[in-house]
Design a protein that fits this description.
By secondary structure, the chain is α/β, with parallel strands linked by helices. The protein is 29% helix and 18% strand. A hairpin with a 7-residue loop joins strand 8 and strand 9. Keywords: Hydrolase.
Length: 354
């Protein structure tokens, strides 16, 4: 049996030991630790950067996160993709400018964050409310984003709804809510709603999900992402997404909320996306992976990009020779682009300042 720690290259494994007690929600956990991150196996250097676990109280529990860098400046809020978690940025953030702070959050039902109440389902717009709660907790007047996939959709919606609150937005591989064929919506809901109800019943039964040897979890994550998450990078996500089985000591199970698999997007059309795009006047960087799907007809992507280019001189679009999880699997390919953008547009915002 391979030890979990041996499959996490130079990363201290804390897993769920770092979960805050209910009474400590919103307080930075006192235990501090360092991550040693390699860009890849051929790298000649290791970057060290301090990171702390944090918890933000919300009505249904707490939002978990990892605060990287200085604590006296407002961090860049970093949002992960669907069924991923804050560990998705473990290989990228240590390579970005060290005088900047980053707060990588676990969305509800993901990573170490609380699940939504029983009987409810996940919706994209709920995450916009969650971000407002985070801002209220820390008493921020502004927010900055670096987000991947589903997180990038959320950051776009937030930025377009509250443009005066957003300093800049960095999106990775998901530009906007995708447009699907209208005739597919009915059959999709017909299938997903009963599936969600079944998942909700299983949650309330408190039964342990299927468990697997750790190596199989790595392989499942690798294949489930269409090989976008390499086997070498998979442990960075698994670290916040698995629990040791109580009935099978040599196995582990996924801890994310299974209701997430049956969530539904915003459902609006391209006309709404384009109207929201007109409000994106802040510095705006988007990176598209060349070896990743558009998840819709390419014409909708191109139409959106053309409008933003016409309206926002601060918009940048870069195509990266990588897959959907480019920031996790091949961070060296995105670091120069993101760092240049940050050094141009990031401004120090001391915490506690008026």
């Amino acid at each position: 049996m391979t030890k979990v720690s041996s499959l996490l290259p130079n990363v201290a494994v804390f897993g769920r030991m770092l979960r805050a007690h209910r009474g400590s929600a919103g307080i930075i956990i006192s235990q501090r630790f360092l991550h040693d991150n390699k860009i890849n196996e051929e790298s000649r250097y290791i970057v060290k950067r301090e990171v702390e676990e944090v918890r933000v109280p919300v009505p249904y529990g707490e939002i978990a996160g990892k605060w990287w860098g200085p604590k006296d400046v407002r961090p860049i809020v970093s949002l992960h993709g669907w069924q991923d978690n804050a560990g998705t940025f473990d290989r990228l953030i240590p390579l970005l400018p060290h005088h900047m702070s980053f707060l990588a959050l676990d969305f509800p039902g993901h990573g170490l964050s609380s699940r939504i109440p029983d009987g409810m389902t996940y919706h994209t717009l709920d995450s916009v409310y969650m971000l407002k709660m985070v801002m209220q907790h820390y008493q921020w007047k502004k927010i900055s984003f670096m987000a991947h996939s589903m997180g990038s959709l959320v950051s776009f919606i937030f930025s377009s709804v509250f443009p005066d609150m957003v300093d800049f937005n960095i999106g990775l591989d998901a530009l906007k809510p995708h447009i699907s064929d209208p005739d597919k919506l009915g059959p999709r809901l017909q299938k997903r709603i009963p599936q969600m109800l079944t998942a909700d019943i299983r949650n309330r039964q408190k039964t342990e999900p299927p468990s697997y040897p750790y190596e199989e979890l790595v392989n499942r994550l690798h294949l489930g992402s269409h090989k976008s998450v390499s086997k070498q990078a998979a442990p960075y996500l698994l670290n916040r997404n698995i629990q040791k089985s109580a009935t099978h000591p040599d196995k582990f199970y996924f801890t994310r909320d299974s209701r997430l698999k049956y969530s539904v997007g915003v459902g609006w059309g391209q006309d709404v996306n384009l109207e929201l795009a007109k409000r994106m006047m802040m510095p705006y960087l988007f990176l598209k992976a060349k070896h990743s799907s558009y998840y819709e007809d390419r014409k909708y992507f191109d139409e959106f990009v053309e409008l933003v280019k016409q309206n926002n001189p601060l918009f940048e679009l870069h195509f990266v020779d990588s897959t959907h999880h480019m920031h996790l699997t091949e961070p060296e390919k995105v670091v120069p682009i993101i760092s240049k953008f940050l050094c141009k547009h990031w401004k120090r915002d001391p915490l506690g300042s008026e």
